[in-house]
Amino acid sequence: MIAEDDKVVVRNHWTATDSQNEKKLEFRGIVIWRIAARQIAERWAYLEAPHPPS
After folding, report:
1. How many domains does one find in the chain?
2. Tens-place pLDDT, residues 1-54
3. What is the pTM (predicted TM-score) of this model?
4. Which domain holds residue 33?
């Protein structure tokens, strides 16, 4: 997590198990928030499509 001026950036890595077939999945992403008046004013995100772990 990085915060500077009015923006906060988080890089994520999620892992999960598909409840229907019990297969493992993972995906990654980056989320950026702009904060104004102590609230989230804008949000941008890039997320990969879920896929089997490499």
Report:
1. 1
2. 999 999 999 999 999 999 999 999 999 999 999 999 999 999 999 999 999 998
3. 0.73
4. 2-47
